[in-house]
Predict the 3D structure of the following.
Amino acid sequence: MKFTDNRPIYKQIIDHFCDQIINGKWSEEERIPSVRDIAVKMEVNPNTAIRAFHELQENGILYNQRGVGYFVAENALDKVLELKRKEFIDQELPCFFRTMKQLGFTCSELEELYKKQHE
Amino acid sequence: MISINNLEFAFKKKKPLFTGLSWKLDMGRTYGLFGLNGSGKTTLLNHISGMLFPADGECLINGTPSRNRIPASLSELFILPEQFDLPSINARDYVALHAPFYPKFNPEQFRETMIQFEVNSDDPLTELSYGQRKKFLISFGLACNTGVLLMDEPTNGLDIPSKSQFRKIMAASSSDERCTVISTHQVRDLESMIDQITVLDNGRIIFNRSLEEITQRLHFKTVRDDEAVSGKLYGEEILGGEAVVSGHNADTKPTEIDLELLFNAIIRETEAINRQFETEARA
């Protein structure tokens, strides 16, 4: 994995986990790879990896069964989507709207383009 | 735990290197030891391992001075020097001779790491390339499972795929019972493996913080020429703008640490950077 953008590595690991849940690769109540497995795969210090696990646990997306490992929580998909939608509105849309304005795009033009691409 | 207290040392009487250096290291952490050439990194590692003796002050590993070189301490310490000589025997014989000194040596782990690094155990060590010998020594050192692991420029001489292998191997072998110190200039090779950044300058520790603290207190950003930055601490000109280290404020989101930029900022603006860590931690 390449850590290119300007977010802390543990945030990028969180994004990766969320993607796994959104894409259905990890389903609810499924056991996910261990902290160590993730650290090795992503070539990061396990202390960094564990921060990602902890944050997702605090958000109720993962839960830890002592001595067994981490599992995807019930309703994790809904929670991830909620989190990601909020992130999209807060972080990506302002940037996108700014560019739209700069280039003089209207919402209806955008709607047409969207339809064209998704037909 | 390693604790270095008021270490004093000089190679030449008139030019002291360490004049009262102190540093505490905890188990379960990986320290990145950074510094300009000649700042004393290797000399410091050699004090921790007991290869050099302080003129004054002490270096303790779990309470025992490392200069005493007692077997019980030495069996819990491995140092991978930047320059090393190996005898003209093969890896297997080397392990048979040296592993008995390390009670926690794990032969299976050694074998696996050698396979991952694709180093042959049958060839005499002297016939291997520098990179292969280094990979052998890394495999051996990790398999010794010592409480203290010191590595001086471990990725120097490693080929491109081996650097990624090295990170995987380090991640897999990290343990709560081990304190690892990696001294390096190859920031990009190892930054994801480190969880504490220590900077040595002119024989003094001028910065020693965890990555977690750094992401809370400092902000790394690239700005365009016309953009204003609040709380700027250090900046470097880049094409079309500036790479900036600034203090954190309420509305900035945590950013990834730009280790090269941070290092330069620490060397040039030592006080301004350290001041960011003095105030109460934000909730």
In short: The two ends of chain B are 29 Å apart (CA to CA). The first strand of chain B starts at residue 2 and ends at 12. Chain B has a mean pLDDT of 91.
